[in-house]
């Protein structure tokens, strides 16, 4: 059986290096191989004697340098492709590699904070058929070796069960502790009671599914808003959070909902965005 694969969208920028660092963390946790992917505009895939050819050679050297920086315990392959759309090209490259997920650097314009979205990243989290992992700014400086704990943002909206199932499979397959979290506004007593009931139900499901030696905890976090509630959660180096795609998404596509977008403003850990039909046909 072949090893799982993790695709990393690479640019020779700090954000690209952040993506590589998180890709290494996830690949090592999963026992996966890394595919470093770079996409150039199609009209620049010309011969080496043209400006496009020069850019192609530079891109190949950037990929080679990035691959050389990956620790020796991880296997890495580089891919340079050409497409009119960077988003479409990255999705195609990840799917061609058979990747479990696509890691992107969050540094860019669009949202203030550690996980800000550039235009390509923003397009990816609204179009990808596979999970997208958004690396926080500065991940390259920490280079966490493995996932320490998975936090899963549980809820009651359609698709919530698929997200929980994906988190359970990840924790089961890697032996990683799981923390279930519900975020609730402090002034909504009805929502708080519902969240507590749902959190307990999710906790019972998780404990029934996971081996006894994998720790599972549950918490209802309250705050004046999503950002406030997220800030009250304790976070450690090596943690990741999993969120589900918005109900606005098309089947097997992503759409980053308002709650997840608000989390991005304050989170210092990688965010894994799971398509709403991810794993629907799996055990």
From TrEMBL:
<dbReference type="InterPro" id="IPR006016">
    <property type="entry name" value="UspA"/>
</dbReference>
<comment type="similarity">
    <text>Belongs to the universal stress protein A family.</text>
</comment>
<feature type="domain" description="UspA">
    <location>
        <begin position="148"/>
        <end position="275"/>
    </location>
</feature>
<protein>
    <submittedName>
        <fullName>Universal stress protein UspA</fullName>
    </submittedName>
</protein>
<feature type="domain" description="UspA">
    <location>
        <begin position="5"/>
        <end position="135"/>
    </location>
</feature>
<dbReference type="Pfam" id="PF00582">
    <property type="entry name" value="Usp"/>
</dbReference>
